[in-house]
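Predict the 3D structure for this chain.
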Amino acid sequence: MLATLADAASARLAGPEDEEALVAMVRRMHADPEWGLRDWEGKPFPFCEERVRERIQAATVKQRNAADAGSACIGVVGAPGHLLSSVYLRRQEPELSGGRYIEEVWNWVAPEHRRGDASQLLLNFAITLADECQLTLVSAARMYENAGRARFLQKRIGRPVSSVFAYNATAGTV
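Done. Predicted structure below.
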């Protein structure tokens, strides 16, 4: 039997009341030197509050059943106004396919809460959503590996930014 989102302990769906705390969290995440892409000069891409608010509102304004969510939802740990962590999930279609999967856009825990279980709660939330939707969950993580192609690209392009992981309920992991 599949778990439900209620079983994901203290992770919950974000609602409109979380918007200000989420904007503040994304601003902190964006400034975190361990997170985010850099431009060709090595500078972080500029923070765009308007775009951040649009994405947050699209995922929170219409409170809905997570399994039936439109294109995005946000899971959070913490009370409104006092968030410890958040995960932004959206449905995507592979470029050359009509299939669908859930993309983890971000999974960020405030540095002062990284020794707790907030990250695990968010991962459980994302996996539970993938199970309920019967879709593969795809997540990128800032990890550095030195296998074949990674070494080849690292010599020519530079240090890798992430590794990609996929979770599929029927196969466990892909």
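The domain at 10-139 is CATH 3.40.630.30 (Aminopeptidase).
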